[in-house]
Specification:
CATH architecture of the largest domain: Roll
Number of helices: 17
Distance between the termini: 69 Å
CATH class of the largest domain: Alpha Beta
Shape: globular
CATH superfamily of the largest domain: Beta-grasp domain
Strand order of the largest sheet: 2-1-5-3-4
Helix content: 25-40%
Structural class: alpha+beta
Largest sheet: 5 strands, mixed
Oligomer: single chain
Length: 498
Amino acid sequence: MKPQTIRFLKNGDAVTLHAVPATRTLLEVLREDLHCTGTKEGCGEGDCGACTVVIGQERDGKLHTSAINSCIRLAHSVDGLAVWTVEGLTQDNGEPHPVQESLAKSHGSQCGFCTPGFAMSLFGLYQKHAGLSIDRTTAQNALSGNLCRCTGYRPIVQAAQAMQQLPAVVLDHPKILKALSAMTDTPAAQDAYLSPRNLKSLLQLRKQWPDAQLVAGCTDVGLWVTKQHREFAKVIDTTRVKELRYIQDYPHHLAIGAAVTLADAFAALVADRPQLQSFAHRFAGLPVRNSGTLGGNVANGSPIGDSMPLLISLGAQVILMSTRGNRRMPLENLYTGYRKNVMQADEVLAWIVVPKANKVTPVPHTRSQWCEVYKISKRFEDDISAVCLALDIHIDKAVVTHASIGVGGVAATPVRARATEKALLGKPWNPQTLQDAMECLRNEFSPISDMRASSSYRREVLGNLLWRFWLESQGQADVDLQALEPLDLKRNFAGAAL
């Protein structure tokens, strides 16, 4: 495997590195080659946020910035991009950046190990909300990929809300875009790490190198490198393919390019179905959603990949392409076994086609449509599911007229609960139908026991989630912990001897 050159902007300055192996991570390059040791290695799997940096790239003539995990991001993926580390926050005159100043004033650092990662997530938030006020929820969402083992979240969230009140520090977007353009005008020679710019080139490279490792955001392949120490003779990066970086909005469906980030893909899905907002947030921490792609998540086919149960329930289809042509199929038909699929060696997953919600005018007590997805995990944010259940149910005159159910965490692949769908379809929407469907759902799969949950727990939870769905359809609001209000201790313990 022949190493090759990387060029990018580091904290505004052009950097050229030679002989960089294809599987070297961005974190390794920053810490070991460029001595940016403020970027920390905590978990090495994109789970703690200590390694967070901010990247910038041109999108439709504008500078787009986002916080990502550098520990599982391959270094060559930032060729031609801008990268900011915590060392680059201080202003040219030596004054602290508003992110740094607000963290200091809010006492947002305890042991300090995680602080650089939090600072960079805040820097990403600062760029996205330039000049705008930041509320607590927005701050918490931006910090969803960062862990503080000293439990110092409150002052960090306060710092996030305070930083916009300080004198603004603005990036020179035209200067950065000009520097990035100069790099892309004369791209570095590619050998081991191939990064095609258009679909035709991607398909030709895939035909030429069918054994090459395809990568997108590397949020999963990165773990193969950091945890399993895998090496790849050839890597083909799909994230620069222009045709696959866009979401095409049609009257009846969305065509989401395989290289669209999870953040952008879920934003489009939520715009069509607002009830998916909470699930989109829980899918992963923001740095993972900023880096990972929907196509990569689907093609990877992990049985605990959360996007697939949702997409299956919505009736999504995938389009596979090669130099020989293309073919289209329901997403659930893509998989043949654990991390195995029907794609030929020269094929790539190009688009995910998702039907839009039917915008019908609801008629009270006669017609209803529900789309819900439930994720059960040990942590609320930034964690992998033990069980994921997605449902798309239509009711007309108290009878189930449509039932589509996707499930994760119960089989070797993401699956469709066809037997349970059959148990619901055409039946009256009442408790007895739901009880029968719950029993069917619990018996339809034979999940394994592992570190996340036992087999019996998974089966029990599946049925319980279906019952929760029924309760919510009946207007019961106290089945969701997020909807519960904290107790008023003074009121509830008034007069009690504490």
